[in-house]
Specification:
The structure holds two protein chains of two kinds. Chain A is about 45% helix and about 15% strand. Chain A is built from 14 helices and eleven strands. In chain A, strand 8 and strand 9 form a beta hairpin. In chain A, helix 11 crosses helix 12. Chain A is globular. Chain B has 23 helices and 18 strands. Chain B is flat. The chains are: A alpha/beta, B alpha/beta. At the A-B interface, helix 4, helix 5 and helix 9 of A face helix 6, strand 6, strand 7, helix 7 and helix 9 of B.
């Protein structure tokens, strides 16, 4: 088993400002089908802090005990196997951190050498993709990831399963995860195919208000000087958000999307000329999660407006003769909706 | 007592030593800007003496590979044991101590990422060669940055996380050494975290950071730590104004190269804007503080710091800093070609040594080692299978050379030429930002000449451009022919040529220098087609009064992107150049 670090992550609710980033992460936490979050922006804006804080906000989920892929207990399968006494275990939704220096064998999984050597057994040792199943896979500096790993992730993210053909092994296992990436565009651009895989994209900027900036320093400083005391002080607010997520997760699938909202979504996407249906679908799903977070059972046009930037800004076609910022273009399209 | 800047940067370098020893990894590390020199050695030696003797000191050489830094399979131990054995990397070995990073500015992006991740999370997540471990690593990074002004600067991700900055290039070794502090390092080590810093001081530090255009909050946090450590070393329970000012100097002002030296000794050079003499400023601050002289009041720090940092100078520093930031932002992260046959080595990948790819013998042996018992290999005999083979990979930095081909003929009337020059100057600035090379070819009268061979010197390019005279016929074909030669030469050097033609497309002088518009046009198109065959990325900017079909035809023959001058912004040229680099 892996040794857990006993450092407490910086509380999500203690992050100053960056409302859009927090919103995107909450939406992804409520509905994994939204398709992941990309957080791109300036250094020191709390990108990776926010993602790591997410782990503490997620509810527990039932899994088959001992399953390396965190499989959900399937009542039918259990009874068919005649072992109805297998009790599902509750584990926190995994947030798996993929370090940049990871080698391919650890990402996809490989032959379990220990067992091969000790017992002559051909066994599969699952990798990070297996561990992230039904959870989140986080890649910091995703724009610096090596190409062959990017290809691999694209393939798995598209199919939802990991296909391993190596060292005489032939293994297929589910790998459905929410891809969360962060990075600084100054270090390098993201490949367009990978960009498209992310449901939501957030642009984070350094806050310009001196008061906010001082508050950032103050909280971070308090945290660094005494992690335990700081996290205790924020525990109540963290609890509130945790409950909000749990409630919204249960409710999201029953949130109703009225015809009028669908129409507005279609009009917005046509107006922006986004490629394919993916944008529209993400827009609807994100709106639904947004409504669920607000405790409503019906999506309103205001939900759609609130998430439009997140869902669409990275899907606009680049026009070489128009340097207008994507965010501005989406904002214009939103204004045009009123006319 | 008023807070004042110390006399020389040597004082700050000396002051940094006990601060690092007290805060250790909490400060992130030290950005040690210095060439290899006795002063730098002295500084490092002093720190090794000051630190807790139990703590490790690990030296990381320039361009270290990931296996060695993070850890990987131990070949001989694995062969001996018959099962995978992990060889500890240098980073986990530095836990609880110091990691000296040699030639930090040359370290690869991957190395920098690993170090940044360690500094952020206090652990190393190892997912390599079948090993999966979370190792606690908390180490203070001493980054020796030897970059000269023209080199690529230290990776900003790392610089951002190194709390203290020391510049030692103008410092004599004899001036550096540990200074006596009222409280011992061991004692300060226990108490520095409980030193109080009030909100007003935080505000003041943030204000200084803003003035210097330091956007990230990390340096300000480091300044707080530094102020605490200094206060603890001098036996204070609250960070004094002196400690805040010292911290600002070491963590913020020093971050902008040359800024601190400039503040300490106002330049005597007449061309530099003269900052107001410091003494007067301090006097004014003193007057303002006479009324509330008891105890350190944060407002006084604000005044004092504002006083020692003349606005004008700050503005100057800020713009310099912004320029550097921009220079970095252009980055060459995109212009790396991975998988090439030459360049910087990258981690090896599985594959067959074909097509010029070389076998990585060590990596191959490592891949085969854990299997030996299963494969029935015996001592001294290794069974290597096809799937074990690893090949070397390299990343190559491709430099772009932008070749400007400028029509300086009479038909490009004087004001058009001036406009063209203006446009080129803008583009030059962009090229400089991207650290591209620039060459200049001009054609007028009877032929074309290379005004400026490929260079990275912006000053030279500007000078060559300014002295470019106009007039005479338009030997367009010659201009293109010379440009093709220059592009070929760049290509042979392994660079990516990008040709930017700026002309109205009305060639009237033949390759032989004879006036014959008909033949000249034909020749120009022929040379253009020859150019197109090479497949270089190019851009034809029509400098004529209005867009003409003739220019368009020439652009088509060159297979260049066509733009008319009034619409040809710097961004389009950038797009083209970036396309070339991709």
């Amino acid at each position: 088993m892996k040794a857990q670090s006993n450092r407490k992550p910086f509380p999500f609710t203690a992050i100053v400002g960056q409302e859009e980033m927090k919103q995107a992460i909450l939406i992804a936490a409520v509905d994994p089908r939204v398709g992941g979050v990309l957080v791109f922006g300036d250094r020191g804006t709390g990108k990776s802090t926010a993602v790591r804080a997410l782990a503490g906000l997620l509810p527990k989920m039932p899994v088959v005990p001992g399953c390396p892929y965190n499989s959900a207990p399937d009542p039918a399968a259990v009874s068919a196997g005649g072992k109805s006494d297998v009790k599902p275990k509750m584990i926190p939704v995994p947030v798996v951190d993929m370090p940049l220096g990871a080698t391919e064998d650890r990402v996809v999984g490989a032959l379990d050498l220990e067992r091969a050597l000790a017992h002559g057994e051909k066994a599969f040792e699952p990798g990070l993709l297996a561990r992230a199943n039904r959870g989140f896979l986080y890649i910091d500096e995703v724009n610096l990831l090596e190409d062959h790993l990017v290809d691999l992730l694209l393939d798995v993210a598209a199919s939802g399963e990991n296909l391993v053909e190596r060292e005489g092994l032939s293994v297929r296992h589910p790998a459905r995860f929410v891809l969360v990436g962060s990075g600084n565009p100054e270090e390098g651009e993201l490949r367009p195919q990978l960009l498209d895989r992310f449901g939501l994209s957030v642009d984070v900027r350094t806050p310009t208000d001196l008061k906010d900036r001082v508050e950032i320093i103050r909280r971070r400083d308090e945290y660094e000087m005494d992690e335990a005391a700081f996290t205790r002080r924020w525990a109540r607010r963290e609890g509130t958000v945790r409950r909000k997520i749990a409630k919204a997760r249960d409710a999201v699938s029953s949130v109703d999307v009225p015809e009028t909202v669908l129409e507005v979504a279609a009009r917005l996407c046509v107006g922006l000329g986004t490629d394919g249906l993916r944008g529209e679908l993400t827009l609807i799903r994100a709106s639904r999660a947004h409504a669920a977070l607000a405790g409503r059972t019906k999506v309103e046009v205001s939900d759609l407006r609130d998430v439009a930037q997140l869902a669409l800004r990275h899907r606009l076609r680049r026009d070489p003769l128009d340097d207008t910022d994507a965010t501005v273009r989406v904002a214009r399209a939103l204004e045009a909706l009123d006319d | 007592m008023m807070a004042e800047l110390r006399a020389t940067s040597a004082d700050y370098a000396a002051l940094a030593l006990p601060v690092v020893a007290v805060t250790g990894a909490a400060i992130g590390g030290v950005w040690l800007r210095a060439q290899a020199s006795p002063a730098r050695q002295r500084w490092l030696d002093s720190l090794t003496e000051l630190r807790d003797r139990e703590s490790p000191w690990v030296r990381v050489p320039a361009s270290i590979d990931e296996d060695r830094l993070l850890g990987g399979l131990d070949l001989s131990a694995t062969l001996a044991a018959g099962r995978p054995v992990l060889q500890q990397g240098l980073m986990p070995a530095a836990d609880g101590g110091y990691m000296e990073l040699r030639m930090a500015e040359r370290q690869s992006a991957a190395t920098v990422s690993s170090i940044c991740s360690m500094l952020d999370h206090g652990e190393l997540r190892l997912e390599r060669d079948g090993f999966s471990e979370d190792l606690p690593v908390s180490a203070c990074v001493i980054a020796c940055d030897e970059a000269l002004p023209d080199d690529d600067p230290l990776d900003p991700r790392l610089a951002d996380r190194l709390g203290l900055v020391c510049a030692l290039d103008a410092v004599h070794a004899s001036l550096i050494g540990p200074i006596e502090t009222p409280v011992s390092i061991a004692e300060a080590n226990l108490g520095w975290r409980s030193v109080r810093v009030d909100t007003a001081s935080i505000q003041e530090l943030q204000r200084i950071a803003d003035a210097l255009q330091i956007c990230s909050p990390r340096p300000v946090r480091a300044a707080l730590h530094t102020a605490r450590a200094l206060a603890a070393l001098w036996g204070c329970e609250v960070a004094s104004e002196q400690s805040i000012l010292d911290a600002a100097a070491m963590c913020l002002i020093n971050r902008v190269p040359g800024a601190l030296q400039q503040l300490l000794s106002p330049p005597s050079d007449a061309t530099e804007p003269e900052p107001p003499p410091r003494s007067t400023d301090t006097d004014t601050a003193d007057v303002g503080n006479d009324t509330n002289a008891s105890g350190p009041k944060p407002e006084e720090v604000a005044d004092a710091t504002a006083a020692v940092l003349p606005d004008q100078l700050l503005a100057g520093l800020a713009s310099e800093h912004a320029r550097q930031a921009k220079q970095r932002a252009g980055g060459n992260a995109n212009s790396e070609v991975v998988g090439g046959l030459r360049g910087k080595p990258m981690p090896s990948r599985s594959g067959l040594p074909r097509g010029g790819r070389r076998l990585d013998i060590l990596a191959t042996l490592k891949a085969a080692a854990p299997w030996q018992r299963l494969r029935g290999g015996s001592l001294g005999q290794l069974r290597v299978k096809r799937e074990d083979l690893k090949v070397r990979r390299f990343t190559e930095q491709t430099r772009t050379t932008t070749i400007f081909v400028v029509d300086a003929s009479g038909s490009a009337a004087v004001q058009r030429l001036a406009e063209t020059k203006g446009a080129i100057e803008l583009l030059l600035a962009e090229c400089y930002v991207r650290r591209d090379q620039v060459a200049l070819v001009a054609f007028r009268g009877e032929g074309a000449e290379v005004l400026l061979p490929a260079t990275r010197s912006l000053v030279r390019a500007k000078r060559a451009l300014a002295s470019l005279p106009g007039g005479g016929g338009t030997p367009l074909a010659s201009g293109l022919a010379v440009a093709t030669q220059v592009a070929d030469a760049a290509f042979k050097r392994g660079e990516t040529p990008v040709v930017v033609l700026m002309s109205d497309g009305r060639g009237n002088i033949t390759l032989d220098g004879e006036p014959d518009p008909g033949l000249a046009t034909e020749q120009a198109l022929a040379v253009a087609r020859e150019f197109a065959a090479r497949g270089y990325v190019s851009l034809a900017i029509d400098t004529g009064r209005r867009p003409s079909a003739r220019s368009q035809r020439l652009a088509d023959a060159m297979r260049a992107r066509y733009l008319a001058l009034p619409f040809a912004g710097a961004s389009e040229v950038n797009d083209v150049v970036r396309e070339a680099a991709a």
